[in-house]
Amino acid sequence: MKVTVIGTGYVGLVAGACFADFGFDVTCIDKDESKVAALRAGTVPIYEPGLTEIVGRTQTNGNLHFVSAYQDAIPNADVIFIAVGTPTKDEGGSADISAVIAASEELAPLLRGCTVIATKSTVPIGTGQRLDALFRSAAPDADVAIVSNPEFLREGSAVRDFVEPDRVVIGAEADWAASTMRALYRPIEDRGIPVLVVDRATAEISKYAANSFLATKIAFINEVADLCEQAGGDVRSVADAIGLDTRIGNQFLKAGPGFGGSCFPKDTRAFVSSSERLGIRQRVVSAAVHANEARKLHLVQRVADACDGDLSNARVAVLGLAFKAGTDDLRESPSLFMVPELVRLADEVRAHDPVAMPVARDTFTGVHYGETVDECLDGADVAVILTDWPEYRELDPKMLAGTMRRNVIVDLRNMMDADTLEAHGVSVVGIGRREPVDAPVAHETSGLGQAAE
Ligand code: UDX
Fold this sequence. Notes:
- By secondary structure, this protein is of the alpha/beta class.
- It is built from 20 helices and 14 strands.
- The protein has a 6-stranded parallel beta sheet, sandwiched between helices. A 6-stranded parallel beta sheet has the order 11-10-9-12-13-14.
- Residues 436-453 have low confidence and may be disordered.
- It binds uridine-5'-diphosphate-xylopyranose.
- Uridine-5'-diphosphate-xylopyranose binds next to helix 9.
């Protein structure tokens, strides 16, 4: 079976490389010729564990190809995946599918025989129907089935999530298209992993509903954390206490600086706006979106409180800039909200991230970078842990105590061993637990970050 993937972004490249590794003949198309040249040379433009190896291996065995001309990969394809970007379009949060439409218009005249066209990009509910109409008029003689095949990959574990997913969702209206898609996922289904075949709208909704539910879980536990701080509880224990209830589940209950990344913020907003277009209000998810946006800014107050409410003479060390560990992605990262605010308020901001610093240098102004964590912490009054990189957990308490000017860590990921650090004279201010430093809930007590509320 011949597979073509349009778009070598994060989703397209992972899917293309993994299908090639399953043994299918895969061609990935990208308009960007320099990217195609780099990929042919084995250079993977994103940081994703395991991906470089698979791209190398499948190019060497002849299963994976990269081209920039549609003509070279569309006519013979049995399945074409559209995996181009669908960024947020407007204030309302709807997804911009112009790249999906442009790709469809370009490929339509080149179709031959029976072809399944599957959307892997996260597209607004109803896009499948719209593409159906597009192909009926742009390729009236071709035998085409439009399928929705959403991806549930996490950055940093995308290859594993592709090969060992919890489930595969195929939204198809025609039986032949469902069978073709199922054949592609046979290596996964053979391992007992459920492959759900549903109608197209159900698949489109499932993608948004999954991400919106997980994002809402995070927004919820973050507000429980605020309550714990006032009432004297510990959010980590509350998460255990509720998460052991199998109806709730123990994942995505880590309180932190708010959800970021390329999916949750975008997909929650698109879920709300897609629903509104159909006259349905998503009050729960709307509330999660607003709570999350406010949180990213109001946690700046937590840092100020750690310096007696005034950062103007303080040197702040920011540890971690990526939206989560395992990626260099800054999209919608809490750092994008917090770092500029810290630069505005503090005497000096230094930052460190094990992989995101090259991207950060093009993003932030007024920030100094420490090549090493020690350099970043040297002389700092307060260190703020923004990203849950495991290496920060391993920091030597003696080094921390000896390097910083005032020994305070604001641990927005609750990842440090507070008892050991405190035994070495380093105070740790966490999330959702009683603090040694007086840390009132910022949005009720301060003017900071009100723009976001
Ligand atoms: C997410 C979905 O998990 C994935 O299925 C979908 O395909 C794309 O979006 P990703 O954005 O890579 O994946 O990251 P994820 O690991 O889900 O984390 C998203 C955000 O939530 C991060 O900012 C993370 O720090 C935050 N998070 C996650 C929490 O704050 N607490 C948690 O308990 C879990």
